[in-house]
Amino acid sequence: MITLYGFGTGFGLPEISPFVTKTEVQLKMAGLPYRKERAMPPASPKGQLPFIDDGGEAVADSTFIRAHIERRYGFDFDAGLSLVERAQAWAFERMIEHHVYWALVGARWVDPVNFAKGPSHFFDGAPEHNREKLREDAQFRVAENYLLSGLGRHAPDDDVDLAVRSLFALSVQLGDKSYLMGNKPCGVDATAFGALAGILTPFFESALRQRAEGFPNLTAYVDRMMDNYYPEFAWSPQRQAA
């Protein structure tokens, strides 16, 4: 039995982290039984979530977890894709994880209202005398990483404009297909779903979410993925937002 370590439900999502969501969906795609445990990043071999324990072998980082699943269990997440399509899927995955993801981080962590509503509560269990300092330090570190990502160097409207160009690319790639690379989900769909659901959750209000809602095929795609992989989770973002 594989144990998946993640943050858990929150922010109107079945899993707070887009990367943990990616791994959880890929475990479901592969049909592998697993159990899920809550953890915090320091517990991971790489200081980040997700990580898995597979029969005593710890594997951290969602991309390396995917490689582990493919190698150990012989499951090909991109079965049916040509070599060119596999390369395209990888390029879109990199765009999502190194561009779209950082726009999501900015909306959650850098925006003071969203930070107070969401990530600041990660520290509610800390000793009261040290709680606010921990919150400030964590927000500062994330904001610093946001700056280093490149997006944080721009004015708020400009960074959203750049992120929307990536959303537009995803929307064009999806077109009228059910999934990014065709009518069957593949590995990159787990990545895209985790990031897009994180943007579209009605828990947070942001310019990024408003702009993302302007791509009907992306919102329908998130709904479809949610129905497929988290059918038990109540997800109706448009109704909740209204």
TrEMBL record:
**Which keywords does this Swiss-Prot/TrEMBL entry list?**
Transferase
Q: Where is the Thioredoxin-like fold domain?
A: 18-114
The protein's superkingdom reads: Bacteria
Q: Where are the transmembrane segments?
A: none
**Pfam families for the chain:** GST_C_6 (PF17171), GST_N_4 (PF17172)
Q: Which GO terms describe its molecular function?
A: transferase activity
Metaxin glutathione S-transferase domain span? 165-225
What InterPro entries does the database record attribute to this sequence? FAX/IsoI-like (IPR026928), Glutathione-S-Trfase_C_sf (IPR036282), Glutathione_S-Trfase (IPR040079), Metaxin_GST (IPR033468), Mito_Protein_Transport_Metaxin (IPR050931), Thioredoxin-like_fold (IPR012336), Thioredoxin-like_sf (IPR036249)
Q: What is this protein called?
A: Glutathione S-transferase family protein
The species is Bradyrhizobium cajani
